[in-house]
Design goal:
Two copies of one chain form a homodimer.
Chain A lengths: L1 H7 L4 E2 L1 H14 L4 H16 L10 H10 L9 E5 L3 E5 L5 H19 L1 E9 L6 H9 L2 E7 L21 E5 L7 E5 L6 H9 L9 E3 L4 E2 L8 E3 L5 H14 L24 E9 L6 H16 L15 H13 L1 E2 L2 H14 L6
Parallel strand pairs in A: 3-4
Antiparallel strand pairs in A: 1-12, 2-3, 4-11, 5-6, 5-11, 6-7, 8-9, 8-10
Chain lengths: 358, 358
């Protein structure tokens, strides 16, 4: 993310409000009703504002393609197919994932407000942008948010294996503080994300050892040969275990795709993906005085910051701290867009017959 | 664990029932009421049966020391200090952790049976053995169990730092299958556990790179110098993030120790540890037909197994598979005990004036 942010510093900026308007226009032109288009646009622009550059407007053209091919349903009936006091299963009716996950998160928070905890799973959902969008919704309501999802492409074999049967299945957790930003972890269970490998390939730079191995189990450092190898999970067998468990929690439990039936929508934009996600909201008030708890989280923040550092390290960082800095900067000055990205969006505007991004 | 199991193969065995009797005798002699002593003994022996050799009878002498010094309360009033339909906070009154966690897990399952999900946190608890004991209780009731806890010793600095402010804070998840064993992940958020480092030191073997670094950030491979360095988290900053979040969920949220106030009971057996744990039970029936779900988990098992393997790898393993093999073997043939371990237990029996392990 640091690399992206540095490269981005010199690029022309687009204001968040302008970005939201453009995304909403594009989605509407593709057939999404105005209210839904604005809801999705706001979340996609928030992804860009938070530095999740590969999860925001970057995905717009792909989403439009899916809508136009019929793989994504522009007029879905998102509904609860089963629920108990603390849980629900939401059928996304193949809507844009943001709509499904927004609904699921709101429902989980409502249940947590009543019973202390809410766990909502989704099936027949789609790519919903960065996980932290949803855990942060819970944190903003004095709750802890936890999110699991089945990633959209299988790039990881089971540990010791050579068939890519697992995705980078991410986990996200957000916990609110008082004076300090939300502590927000949003991580893939692999050492790197595929986007970073593409970036290395573009720049003709080798990958560090530990990112990928080839089919012989040897380190793969040439990013141009990425298709011949596999991502490595964090901590070896442990990261594989986490990716597998997350797949069971967000996929299998919800009746969503996991394993060989995962559809990579960036390659196949015609087949519905049956994506699965799970969101968990825990009401802090069910365990502690909210004000006191948030001050204790501040204290944890400060204790971690107070650690002396290794040679060459300026300071210890908390999860979500860097993303928060980017967010504040971009909310004030706009989101940087490369010439290449702008060109893609101009072409999209042209195809859709809408006003381009100003 | 494989190493331990191999070394163990040639050692004399003790039957599980005999081990339970001995542990219960020792705890009773230390002042634990008979019913509680048997409950804890059964869980400790299960830890040994499952191959968690550093979490079973190995800890008995330490627990007895804590009880005798007053750091652990032999006649606790474990009580619910707050609850909602889906959540509860349990005050362990400084009981042996097994008693607190058994109560917490049963409560979480009861809540899950009612509302689909139950989340129970503990404070003023103590070391409770391996996490999988509790997640497997949920799996045995057709539920998914998820467990977080604050480890008992700070061995990990925040990423980039040099002050050990975090423990190996583990996460465990168990999901039941039908024909196949429970898929059970039970992992520390560090690349290795401290017990393995002690083993390397005993054997005069170097540690592989990646286990520890020294205060300069350089790889530390001499296990005799372990006290000069730090454990490394899985996936670098990611594992640090996970350990931190788990600390917030199992410590801070519950009003339990986390950060500088963590007490390592293996060093300080006099100060109550205020240990914190969180257990989450999700009722599968709230999301799916239980039979169908468990068959789908079988399918996931088989799909992972079907992956071709890297050179030198016999077969892909599922989380918990190895532990299940050990469990079956040890339930049939008993738990191996080294001469050294047996000597420690004989001395303990002598001090307590009880019948030794037969």
């Amino acid at each position: 993310m640091t690399e992206t942010a540095n490269t981005a510093a010199s690029q022309p900026r687009v204001e968040i409000a302008t970005l939201i308007e453009f995304i909403a226009r594009a989605l509407e032109a593709a057939g999404i009703p105005p209210g839904d288009a604005r809801r999705v646009a706001a979340l996609m622009a928030e992804a860009d504002a938070r530095g999740g550059d590969a999860h925001g407007v970057f995905r717009l053209a792909q989403y439009v393609k899916q809508i136009q091919s019929g793989a994504v349903n522009p007029r879905p009936n998102i509904r609860i197919v089963g629920q108990k006091a603390g849980t629900a299963l939401v059928d996304g009716d193949n809507a844009l994932g943001h709509l499904v996950m927004k609904r699921a998160t709101e429902l989980a928070m409502e249940k947590a407000r009543q019973g202390g905890v809410g766990w909502v799973g989704t099936r027949r959902s789609n790519h919903a942008g960065p996980a932290q969008l949803y855990t942060r919704m819970a944190a903003a309501q004095n709750m802890i948010g936890i999110y699991f999802c089945v990633g959209n492409a299988n790039l990881l074999p089971p540990w010791g294996g050579t068939e890519a049967l697992l995705s980078t299945n991410p986990i996200a957790i957000a916990v609110p503080a008082s004076r300090h930003p939300v502590i927000s972890l949003d991580m893939a269970t692999t050492n790197t994300a595929f986007g970073k490998i593409r970036l290395k390939a573009q720049r003709n730079e080798p990958m560090p050892e530990g990112w990928m191995i080839d089919k012989e189990g040897k380190p793969l450092t040439d990013p141009k040969r990425a298709s011949e190898g596999f991502l490595l999970p964090i901590g070896g067998a442990k990261g594989y275990g986490l990716a597998l468990m997350i797949g069971l929690l967000a996929g299998t439990l919800n009746g969503a795709a996991f394993g060989r039936d995962v559809v990579d929508y960036t390659v196949d934009s015609k087949t519905p993906s049956n994506a699965g996600q799970s969101i968990l909201a825990v009401d802090i008030a069910a365990f502690a005085d909210v004000k006191t708890f948030k001050e204790q989280v501040d204290e944890v923040w400060e204790v971690m910051k107070s650690s002396p550092t290794l040679p060459g390290v300026d300071e210890v960082r908390l999860p979500g701290e860097h993303s928060e800095q980017i967010y504040r900067e971009r909310m004030a000055h706009g989101v940087p867009l490369s010439d290449g990205q702008r060109k893609v969006l101009d072409e999209l505007a042209d195809r859709l017959g809408i006003l381009p991004l100003q």
